[in-house]
Amino acid sequence: MSELLLGGVKATTLAKEYQTPLYVFDEDKIVGMMQAYIKNFKSEEFATKVLYASKAFQTVAVINLAASQGLGLDVVSGGEIFTALKSQMPKEKIYFHGNNKTPQELEFFVESGLTHVVCDNMMEARLLANLAEKAQRTISVMLRLNVGIDAHTHEYINTAFIDSKFGMSYESAECQQTLAAIAASPYLVLEGFHAHIGSQIFEMTAWRAEIDKLVSYLKDFSETLTLNIGGGFGIHYVDSDRPLAPDETARELIAYTEKALAKAQQKIATLIIEPGRSLVGEAGTTLYTVGFEKKTPHKHYLFVDGGMTDNIRPALYQAEYQCDIANRLDAPKTQAVTVAGKLCESGDVLIKNANLPTCVAGDILAVYSTGAYGYSMSSNYNRALTPAVVFVKDGQSRLVVKRQTYLDLLRNEVMD
Q: Bridge partners of 398?
């Protein structure tokens, strides 16, 4: 029987050595995606930066990988800052995002020596100005703008509709007051504008519209600013997905920005993108062990030893995945099953209609393209343990994150 290889390692070998559920990442695939952006996101007219949007999957190991390939980093919390500071990522390449950064997080940002922040609202700008003055530190500020572009994604991942919690309309009084607050502070420097229009985007139209909007604002400023057009590059989850190739996407974004700037007779210092999911998503596979099965009048359930605690996306916004029995890849797929988890929720379903061979308890089920937002959004609901994370490359595996233990669940509890 044919077996699934991940980075040259048998999936069954990984399952036996590290147990399941197990997050497995193909290191070469991550590097390949990073290089596709880095090599093609280049211009002779302005500088460029590729930042890894690390909320998709953040560990010290993957940040070190990003740093080794020349990427910068996008962080969105104090915890992500702390993790980044323990990595090899240069501080000057870290950008701090978020719509409600707490005073403690902003203080941590300033005290840690980071210099780039993406400011979401006027209250944040005023607090940041006070902290920067207190620390006698100069901070480069990008304003998060809501450009009102509909990227045609699920409402939970569309971030640029008019009432989104993210960003400000450039024409709004709040945005203009925020710009004034930045200009009034001797410690804040306006670096430019940031926008992000959604996730799982499969066509260029929305990005072109976003670029046109951002470029149109440049005429109001004498200084040469930076534009950050965010991320949202789609990946392949199921056969109906048609993601854009990263090299072609990078080249198209550069070419269109150059064209838009020429038409508007404007210049920028730097153009930034923030791929996250597209760097790690397809590089990740989650391995499960098949347990019981059950047939109801209308469904054939196949249960696995994980579920919504290691992949909340199907329950959260109806995300779809594909899977295989890793230890019998070439077996005829003769049955349609619903792959469900072991958590006490009816919504704990990973795949609603999976075509698989006849399965037996102990088979290893591989769910593909789980590299983004699986580990990041994992939980201990039902006191489930967070799975281990393993990197594979050239037929070798290495442990990146240890599996939780029962003792870890009690680590922060105060015992009488």
A: 391
Tell me the CATH number at 59.
3.20.20.10
* Residue of 281, 268, 263, 288 whose CA lies nearest to 363: 288
In angstroms, the CA 126 to CA 188 distance is: 10
List the beta strands (DSSP E) in 18-79. Answer: 22-26, 47-53, 72-75
User: Are 222 and 133 found together in one domain?
Assistant: yes
Strands 47-53, 22-26: pairing is unpaired
pLDDT in tens, the chain (416 residues): 799 999 999 999 999 999 999 999 999 999 999 999 999 999 999 999 999 999 999 999 999 999 999 999 999 999 999 999 999 999 999 999 999 999 999 999 999 999 999 999 999 999 999 999 999 999 999 999 999 886 655 343 344 456 677 789 999 999 999 999 999 999 999 999 999 988 888 889 989 999 999 999 999 999 999 999 999 999 999 999 889 899 999 999 999 999 999 999 999 999 999 999 999 999 999 999 999 999 999 999 999 999 999 999 999 989 999 999 999 999 999 999 999 999 999 999 999 999 999 999 999 999 999 999 999 999 999 999 999 999 999 999 999 999 999 999 999 999 88
The CATH number of the domain holding residue 16 is: 2.40.37.10
- Distance in angstroms (rounded) separating the CA atoms of residues 141 and 180: 13
* Residue finishing a domain among 232, 251, 277: 277
With contact defined as beta carbons under 8 Å apart, do 29 and 15 qualify? no
Q: Please indicate, yes or no, whether residues 218 and 317 belong to a single structural domain of this protein.
A: no
- Distance between CA atoms of residues 211 and 21, nearest Å: 41
Looking at the 3D structure of the chain, how many domains does it have? 2
271 and 326 fall within a common domain: no
Answer yes or no: are the C-beta atoms of 42 and 366 closer than 8 Å.
Answer: no
Active site residue 344: yes
Residue 208 lies in a domain: yes
Same domain, 193 and 330: no
How far apart, in whole angstroms, are the C-alpha atoms of residue 406 and residue 151?
42
Domain endpoint, select from 277, 303, 323: 277
Among the options 119, 175, 323, 344, which is catalytic? 344
Please check whether residues 69 and 17 belong to one and the same domain. no
Q: Which domain holds residue 349?
A: 5-24+283-409
